[in-house]
């Protein structure tokens, strides 16, 4: 009996917000689940980076998990636009810092930029994808110039 209450509470927490517009409802549900999956992935990566003793990656991913939890909270409260801004910006900041403190322009973390562009396009539409592409180009240029 107690386990059924716990299970119903988990379903309630992970269910997306309810909107009157069906198209917006589908988009919100998709993005809410994407952010939850990103938070879970970031937690797993932070644990693995901890065991590999990469402190910069651990700190960056811990900050990213906190930002993603705030984004999930905002999405559930109806602040979808603000949440859709937080996620790509924080991902750009974390990946740029990990590349800067890591191997620079040769760091494998830079492969995350195209995924962030796709995520920004899903969350904010065409203008979000274009803005994310520009931010990604500036991030790579920053890492490249810092390496010189």
A few lines on this structure:
The protein has 148 residues and is mostly helical. The chain is 82% helix and 0% strand.
Report on this model:
By secondary structure, the chain is an all-alpha fold. Helices cover 82% and strands 0% of the residues. It has six helices and no strands. α4 (80-101) runs antiparallel to α5 and α4 (80-101) packs parallel to α6 (126-147). The mean pLDDT is 82.
Key structural traits:
single chain, 148 residues, flat
Order of helices and strands: HHHHHH
Main sheet makeup: none
Helix content range: over 70%
Low-confidence runs (pLDDT<50, min 5 residues)?
none
Q: Treating each run of at least 4 consecutive H or I residues as one helix, how many helices? A: 6
What overall form do the CA principal axes indicate?
flat
**What is the residue-mean pLDDT, rounded to a whole number?**
82
Distance between the termini: 63 Å
Strand residue content: under 5%
- As a whole number of angstroms, the C-alpha radius of gyration is 17 Å
Q: Say how many strands there are.
A: 0
Q: Structural class per helix/strand content?
A: mainly alpha
What's the layout of helices and strands?
Blueprint lengths: L1 H13 L7 H30 L3 H22 L3 H22 L10 H13 L1 H22 L1
Helix pairs in contact: 2-3, 3-4, 4-5, 4-6, 5-6
